[in-house]
Design brief:
Length: about 300
């Protein structure tokens, strides 16, 4: 195609999960329900942690930040999808698409890094219990939350700058329900090898290093738990990690599933449906995992409900 037939697009078309018109009301109701459950569940965790003085510890401080990030993460994609279904419009502006992509990367990366910070917190609590109050002091905890935010912000801005320099055809259709960065790279008229290499390199670093940190932390944690003489002590030590470990398996399991599904050349629609697992289902299940498997959280939520009534 000649260069004069190329232009910078002013808008994209999000194709969503299905073209079936009869299925649209069902999808709208389903995702609206999941969105409300996610927001309400994570808000309850934040309120319970802030209202109960017994939960003013580093572990629950990181949990409340994870809940806030989950609310923001799901809010970058689902409200736009619901509005598109209700208005029968699939248009998203060029700047709106890049903005959505940036926020998606920012909050997704923050989620990822906060899970690593929480694994480090459990590692210090179990392997160095006597030094835990000194190591995990308020200044250190605040720094451990700020660093993931700044790293994720830098990552999102790098993606924004690289994608903004790509050229697209007119009326570009994105076979997804949000502006996924990998889909935007595939739709570009001319791909810049250095950009692709840099994006995948950054993705490998921000995905590989946190996961390696989580593996290392739990390797040390398991070693310390096995040295505990009593079975009751082993159970108590492991119970403090079970909720976090469940969330890690859910987040990375679904994320890796999407990555592997894209490598085996599944249809774009199937990849989009698989993405629902880590963009919607994981943030929705996190509050249930932490509240149902944690006696302190259940006690704090019961107290919150009693005060509300």
């Amino acid at each position: 195609m000649e260069l004069n037939n190329l232009t910078h697009v002013s808008e994209f078309f999000l194709m969503g999960l299905s073209d079936d018109l009869e299925l649209q009301p069902l999808l709208s109701g389903l995702f609206l329900s999941m969105y409300l459950v996610t927001v309400l569940g994570n808000l309850l965790i934040i309120l319970a942690v802030s209202s109960d003085s017994h939960l003013h510890t580093p572990m629950y401080f990181f949990l409340s930040n994870l809940s806030l990030t989950d609310i923001c993460f799901i809010s970058t994609t689902i409200p736009k999808m619901i509005v598109d279904i209700q208005t029968h419009s699939r248009v998203i502006s060029y700047k709106g698409c890049l903005t959505q992509m940036s926020f998606f990367i920012f909050f997704g990366g923050t989620d990822n890094l906060l899970l690593t910070v929480m694994a480090y917190d459990r590692y210090v609590a179990i392997c160095y219990p006597l030094r835990y109050p000194i190591i995990m002091n308020p200044h250190h905890c605040g720094l451990l939350v700020l660093v993931p935010f700044f790293i994720s912000l830098l990552d999102s801005q790098l993606h924004y700058l690289m994608v903004s320099h790509l050229t697209f055809f007119m009326d570009v259709e994105i076979p997804h329900f949000f502006c996924d960065p990998s889909q935007l790279l595939n739709l570009a008229c001319f791909t810049i090898p250095n950009n692709n290499i840099l994006i995948y390199f950054i993705g490998a670093i921000l995905g590989g290093f946190p996961l390696s940190g989580i593996f290392f932390s739990y390797y040390k944690i398991v070693g310390s738990i096995l040295r505990v003489p009593s079975s009751g002590g082993k159970y108590k030590a492991f119970s403090t990690c079970s909720s976090h470990l469940s969330v890690v398996c859910l987040f990375y399991g679904t994320g890796l599933g999407v990555y592997l599904s894209s490598t085996v050349k599944l249809s774009p629609r199937k990849v989009a449906m698989t993405s629902v697992m880590y963009t919607v289902v994981t943030p929705m299940l996190n509050p249930f995992i932490y509240s149902l498997r944690n006696r302190d959280m259940k006690r704090a939520m019961q107290g919150l409900f009693r005060r509300s009534v």
